[in-house]
Each structure stands twice: as structure tokens, then as C-alpha cells.
Amino acid sequence: MSIFSRSTRTDEPVFDPATTAIDDLTGDYTIDPTHSRVGFSARHAMVTTVRGQFKDFTGTAHIDAADPAASSVSLTIQSASIDTGVADRDGHLVSADFLDSAAQPEITFVSTEVARDGDDWAVTGDLTIKGVTRSVLVTFEPTGSARDPFGNLRVGFEGSTSINRKDWGLTWNAALETGGVLVSEKVKLDFDVSAIRNA
User: Fold this and answer.
1) Which residues span the domain enclosing 42?
2) pTM for this predicted structure
3) Three-state secondary structure readout of the chain
4) pLDDT below 70 — which residues of the chain?
């Protein structure tokens, strides 16, 4: 049997099942950056996906379960904290060709509308990159709530969205001899959030 015909499917769950410490998520929260991730991925040379993350960010959220429209989210990312695992690439990404971190040190997301669809939360907000602000929609799925060993009440959410980087003035690219470009215009943003309810 060829190694390429073997199934890699498994019926085992990837992670342990989520816990639920509270049914009502209403409250004010602060994102715990040490247990959260703001990541991104883009195609490189039309053949592979390069992934990275921002290591320095802060954020807050107000959740109103009874009136989702009264909820809000705010996130501030230090653009120079970008990390793709390759120092030369990171240096290019913080240069004026891309994020221009020296002149535009912060990337921000501030919600303008929050709605709930079943368990999922649809958060529309203003995403500002390199001084350009555009509206984006991020859909978040709750991943559970728990009381940690230190007494903190935590909630988890996972969300993602796709943007066209050119809409924010991130236009640098290089053509390939075989057709296509070196860096895709489409970039996927991923948010794995652990937030602690304020005392």
C-alpha cells in the first residue's frame, strides 16, 4: 500500500473537552496575552503557507449576554513584535515595505457592532494598519470557561477572518517568472483568546 493512500483521519478529539464554569458570560474582561495568540498566515511563492504571530498585544472586552449589541472589544498590537521564526523576514515585514513599524508602531481593532448567532459572536470593527482604517468582520466561537488555580475566571474564544493586505496599503510584492507573485494579497488572521474577568 502506498504511503500516500493511508488515511490520517482519527476519531479521537484533538483536545480535551471544554469546561463551562459559568453560563452567563456577562462582564468586563482583560485579554491574557500569555495564554492568547494573534496570528496570521499568507501564501508564499504560490506554493506554501507562511505563518506568524504578534507577540506583544493588549486587549479588553465587555460581554453582555442579554444584549449582545452592548458588547465591545478593543485590541492593540505592537507591529514590531511580529514573529515568523525568520529574523530577516521579520525585518522586512517591519520595514516601510510592509508595516512601517517605526512610523506606525500600533495595529488596532475597535469593535463597532457586536451580534450573536447561536453560540457564535460576530464582531464588526475598525482595523487600523499602517494608519489606514477599514471595517472587518471577525466571527468568534466560544471555547469554554473555567476557574483557574489562581482564582481567575477565564473565558476562551477562537476567531478568524481574511483580509486583502492591499486595502491597508501593504502593496509590496515581487513577480515570479512562472506566474503569480511572491506574497499573496490575501492574509488570514487568527485569534485564540483567553480573557480574565475583571474583579
Assistant:
1) 26-197
2) 0.83
3) CCHHHCCCCCCCCCCCCCCCCCCCCCEEEEECHHHCEEEEEEEECCCEEEEEEECCEEEEEEECCCCHHHCEEEEEEEHHHEECCCHHHHHHHCCCCCCCCCCCCEEEEEEEEEEEECCEEEEEEEEEECCEEEEEEEEEEEEEEEECCCCCEEEEEEEEEEEEHHHHCCCCCCECCCCCECEEEEEEEEEEEEEEECC
4) 1-23, 44-47, 172-183
- Residue 14 counted as domain residue: no
Domain membership of residue 186 (yes or no) is yes
d(CA 45, CA 37) in angstroms, rounded, equals 26
pLDDT in tens, 49-65: 888 999 999 999 999 99
